[in-house]
Design brief:
Distance between the termini: 69 Å
Helix content: 40-55%
CATH architecture of one domain: Orthogonal Bundle
Oligomer: single chain
Order of helices and strands: HHHHHHHHHHHHH
Radius of gyration: 24 Å
CATH topology of one domain: Cytochrome Bc1 Complex, Chain D, domain 2
CATH class of one domain: Mainly Alpha
């Protein structure tokens, strides 16, 4: 075989590899994987216990993450939003993607069963009848300066004057906390509350008028403005170290 023939064969081999790579990148999920022990499971209790309870608590009662057995949350959150969150996760937060097409371990049927089970098991008709709740997702533009005022009026009695913790609730402007929660996550907590932690929903504790959509949006904007570039950094930056 001549040198020319060897070169032509090498080029053909590279072209073949590249043609395959164009269809799918190496390591890209194929959408066919299933979690061990879950290959055919479409049982809500099993799927929830194996995939959700570690963060959202046994029986949806809450843990490091939102209590999913919160009827207010299930009433205001659209099924499509819940499904998208389960399937795709939330980038930059603790919520991973569970769909096989996004690198997770659950099939579409299993994710559908989780969403169906959440609503069927923990929804309450009286919660769905609540009127006047702000929309689940933001429609308006938030103003941090207005949000600071709204926070003082509605939240400071528990979370402290500057949000750094008070007599009844913890620090909500901690940079590590804000780095692990999205704006939608903040909005969801304020809107639906966290019964497991004694956190009221958007209607508050009765000492103030319920939050409007604009007030809720402004508070989230103010909290979001407290995020920093390097959250949780325990050491000085280059400029600080030389001063």
């Amino acid at each position: 075989m001549t040198i020319r023939e060897k070169i032509l064969i090498g080029i053909a081999g590279v072209a073949l590899l590249l043609s395959g790579a164009c269809r799918r990148f190496p390591g890209e999920p194929e959408g066919s994987a299933e979690a061990p022990g879950e290959k055919s499971s479409v049982n809500f209790d099993q799927l929830y216990a194996q995939n959700c309870a570690g963060c959202h608590g046994a029986n949806g009662q809450g843990g490091p993450a939102l209590a999913l057995a919160n009827p207010i949350y299930l009433a205001v959150a659209p099924d499509a939003s819940i499904r998208r969150t389960v399937a795709q996760g939330i980038r930059g937060t603790m919520m991973p993607a569970f769909a096989t097409t996004f690198g997770g371990m659950l099939t579409d049927a299993q994710i559908d069963e989780l969403v169906r089970g959440l609503k069927e098991k923990w929804s309450r008709p009286e919660a769905e009848a609540i009127a006047g709740a702000p929309p689940y997702s933001r429609d308006l533009t938030g103003d941090p300066s207005r949000g600071a005022v709204d926070f003082q009026v509605n939240c400071s009695q528990c979370h402290g004057h500057n949000g750094e913790g008070g007599p009844k609730a913890g620090d909500v402007v901690d940079d590590s906390f804000l780095a692990l929660v999205s704006d939608q996550g903040l909005r969801t907590t304020i809107l639906a509350g966290r019964p497991d932690l004694g956190h009221p929903d958007w209607r508050g504790d009765g000492s103030h008028q319920p939050l409007t959509d604009q007030e809720l949006t402004d508070i989230v904007a103010w909290l979001g403005s407290k995020r920093v570039t390097a959250p949780g950094r325990p050491y000085p930056g280059p400029k600080e170290a030389t001063n």
